[in-house]
Amino acid sequence: MCCNLLKQKYDFLQLKDIKKIITSVENFLNKEILDTFHKKGAVIGISGGIDSAVMAAICTKSIDPNQVLGIIMPEKESDPKSELLGQKIAQQFKIKTKTLDITSILESFGVYDNKEKIVKEKFSDFNQNCKYRVAVPPKFSNSIGMPFLEILDEKNKIQKFKISTEEFLELTAASSIKHRVRMTMLYYYAEKNNYCVIGTTNRSEFLQGYFVKYGDGGTDIEPLTNFYKSQIYQIGEFLQIPEEILKKDASPDIWSFSTSDEEFFYSVPYHIVDLILYARENNIPKSEIQKISNLSIEQIDNLIQTQNQKQIKSQHMREIPHNCNSIE
Prior knowledge:
Layout: H1 2-9, H2 18-36, E1 41-45, H3 50-62, E2 68-72, H4 80-92, E3 96-99, H5 103-108, H6 111-122, E4 131-135, E5 148-152, E6 158-162, H7 165-193, E7 195-197, H8 203-208, H9 229-238, H10 243-247, H11 261-266, H12 270-281, H13 286-293, H14 297-313
Parallel strand pairs: 1-2, 1-7, 2-3
Antiparallel strand pairs: 4-5, 5-6
C-alpha cells in the first residue's frame, strides 16, 4: 500500500535508478568492512521485517556471501511469523544463520515481570492467555496524544487503559532491554568472527529517533540512513524480497499484542511520515504539501511540530557521548 500511494502522489520520493543506487551501497559497504574496519565479514540481525531483509540481501552482494552471518533472536513475546520470515530471507539469499531464543536472558533482567506488574495493576484479570501493547492515538483523531495500554483479554476483547508518564517510561525502558540484548549478541558473534555489525535503521527512523540507543542503534555501519522507509520498500521490490514481507505492516515486535510502527510511534502512515520529513528537509511550502496530500494546513502544522519535537529530543541519539572539553 505504501509504495502504491507514493507512486500515485509523491514522485519526488521515487528512486530513479535503483540498480545504480544499490550498487553504490554495495561498494560503500564493501569498502567500510574490508578497508575501514579491516574486518572479514558482516553480522546482521534478521528480524523478518523489510529493513533487515533489504540489508541482508545487500550484504550478500557486497562481500562474499559465506562471510555474512544472520542472527535471528526471537523471545516469548515475538510474533512467531517473524522468525519464519527471517529464515525465509536467509534461505533466499543463502545466508548462514544462528537462531538464539533470548527469553531466558530477558527473564533474568526482569523484563516481563516489570512490565506485567503494571499491566496487572490496570487489569486484574490479566493472565498468560492475555496479550498487551502500548499504543498512541491516531494523529488526526480528537483524542489527546497520550500513549495508552491495550490488553487483548481471554475473550478476545480489547481493554484500554490510561497510563501515566512514569508507567509509559517503565514499560518502554523494559522493552528497550530486548534491543540491547540483541545488540550484545550481535557483537559477540561479530568479535568472535572478526566481522562488522551492520545496522538496518532507515532515514525515517533515524531522523525521528525511532531506534534504541545502544540497542538497534548500536552498530558499526548504518548503510540505509539516506533512504526513507517508503524507499526501502522500493529497494525491497527490486531485490525481490518476499511478498509477505513487502505487504506486512512494519512493527517493533516488542509487545505480545502485535502493533505496527504507526500505532506505537508515528501515529500516521509511513507515506505521510516520509512526505512531511522530505518536505521539512527540502523546504517545500505547506501549500504544496496540501495539494499533493489532501491534508489540511492545521494537520500539516501539527505533523511538522511533532516531527520537529521528536528530532530535537532524539538529537543525542545520533551523536557520540558528549565530552567535557574545559577543565578548570
